Amino acid sequence: MNDELRERIEREAEKHALLNAVKHESDADVGAIMGPLMGDNPDFREHGDEIPGVAGGVIGQVNDLSYEEKRERLEDLAPEELAEIEAEDEEDEHDLPDLPNADEYDEIRMRVAPNPNGPWHVGHARMPAVIGSYKERYDGWFCVRFDDTDPETKRPDMEAYDAILEDLDYLGFEPDATYKASDRLETYYEHARELIDLGGAYTCSCSGEEFSELKNSGEACPHREKDAEMVREEFEAMVDGEYSSGEMVLRVKTDIEHKNPALRDWVAFRMIDTPHPREEASDYRCWPMLDFQSGVDDHLLEISHIIRGIDLQDSAKRQQFVYDYFGWDYPEVVHWGHVQIDAYDVKMSTSTIAELIEQGELDGWDDPRAPTLKSLRRRGIRGEAIVEAMAGLGTSTSDVDLAMSSIYANNRDLIDEETDRRFFVREGNQLPVSGDPPAEANPPLHPNHEERGVREIPVSDSVMLEPEDVPEADERIWLKGLGCFRYAEGALEYTADDIDVVREGEVDVVHWAPATESVAVRMRTPDGDVRGHAEPGVGDLTSDEMVQFERVGFARIDRHDDEEEETVVYYAHP
């Protein structure tokens, strides 16, 4: 083997060792690189006996480098191969499939289009979670467009506009733009006029029942062949508010014999007598239907991809007629199934939740029993945990189930290491203490972080235990952070046994609270309020701090209520 060949082998061995090490984030191995090395360099094969010795020295040098040093060296030697590895890694990290035909667009542009009839329930989080994730992946753009063009049956709630934007912020996303459809009526009117001039729409004064009979039998409405001038004149009268609700509509001319009756000459505008709650829109009486309004907006906002429920497939088909008249290209569409969420007795419905709040059965949108994002936020669950769970559902056309336990698991991963531990005894039994125990218990603030120190829990003449933790007569228990006690004659007698009795499985460890120095706590949970007592340090915690009540679960400190002489906390999850 001459020096030139040896240098080539060393260069190629270094490249393949780096590829192997960076791809698997571990040390390179001679056996793992020999196949690719020889495959890329068939002229090396006649020196096969010598190559492992040459490569071994190079691999040793590569393995002495840090991961970042390996990556930097590989970027110098083989930037294209490094890019392929990173692309594969990125693809593996995604729960969501690639957007269809994404590479055909200069920019991925998407929209979240809520109906502002109330704050978001948990199911609503799926759309922004997925769209926000796609924006980050493709360095794209997304807007919030409030589809608020139905001031009667889906009447907007004036507080919902800001509430929804707050929910979006909680999930960790900031829209690139925000629009209200009720601000854009003149834009929709202009497009309706153009559609009329193109022969694509006509005014119709048939009753709903009359048109339904004609539509279902595939017969044309008698108003279908009006001349454009008459249609334009009657549409202007609609815009001027000269008709009452139900008197006149503007229909998109489609195919009256279409195999799907739902697509036959559908309504684009109708009259609504009820004023819009927004002052800026309160004078309008001629309102677009969602399929017309949304279709026009998606084009004008240059939306590249739409995500919508599979039950809305007809919307794309209706809008396609309008797009064909105008010569527009329809966006890519991803349809998905519904998401079902467990753990709540309250129906996942904005109107139902609003009704329960009005009736006083729920305290508000952030009641822990309400399946809303505001409730999860008040309970101390981070938006990131929700986004991860929702994105993990993917975009299947089948209905999917989301267990709240998956959100809880994500949140636990986010907060466990930073959350200190405390004792909280639910509905406790007070038991006298005897036998000269230590005057103070000092369990750690966090079992994995000794540097944070310990808690200082005073021990007086009695403690509180949860009812199921009270031992049988003459049995021993270990009060965590304090020591071993025997239950005899209605009292806990300190025994001074060492921790070996716990390690050997003879004694159960239980949490507790001092009877006199404890803090009264009301813990609000999805199943109702739970009252009890916590160690005194809980009274010094500030609002929004998270705590893990040992053997109970995580909770968020909400407030210290001086009037009720209690600390109110919101239960997050186990």
Automatic annotation (TrEMBL):
Protein's GO biological process: amide biosynthetic process; glutamyl-tRNA aminoacylation
Localization terms from the record: Cytoplasm
One Pfam family, short name: tRNA-synt_1c_C
Domain Glutamyl/glutaminyl-tRNA synthetase class Ib catalytic: 107-415
Entries under Gene3D superfamilies matching the protein: 2.40.240.100, HUPs, Ribosomal Protein L25, Chain P
Catalytic activity line of the entry: tRNA(Glu) + L-glutamate + ATP = L-glutamyl-tRNA(Glu) + AMP + diphosphate
tRNA synthetases class I (E and Q) anti-codon binding domain mapped to chain residues: 509-558
Source domain of life: Archaea
Entry annotated with the keyword Nucleotide-binding: yes
Domain Glutamyl/glutaminyl-tRNA synthetase class Ib anti-codon binding: 420-489
InterPro entries in the record: Gln/Glu-tRNA_Ligase (IPR050132), Glu-tRNA-synth_arc/euk (IPR004526), Glu/Gln-tRNA-synth (IPR000924), Glu/Gln-tRNA-synth_Ib_cat-dom (IPR020058), Glu/Gln-tRNA-synth_Ib_codon-bd (IPR020059), Rbsml_bL25/Gln-tRNA_synth_N (IPR020056), Ribosomal_bL25/Gln-tRNA_synth (IPR011035), Rossmann-like_a/b/a_fold (IPR014729)
Gene Ontology CC: cytosol
Residue span of motif 'HIGH' region: 114-124
Keyword field contains Transport: no
Entry keyword set: Aminoacyl-tRNA synthetase, ATP-binding, Cytoplasm, Ligase, Nucleotide-binding, Protein biosynthesis
Function of the protein: Catalyzes the attachment of glutamate to tRNA(Glu) in a two-step reaction: glutamate is first activated by ATP to form Glu-AMP and then transferred to the acceptor end of tRNA(Glu).
Listed name of the protein: Glutamate--tRNA ligase
Source organism of the structure: Haloterrigena salifodinae
Primary gene name: gltX
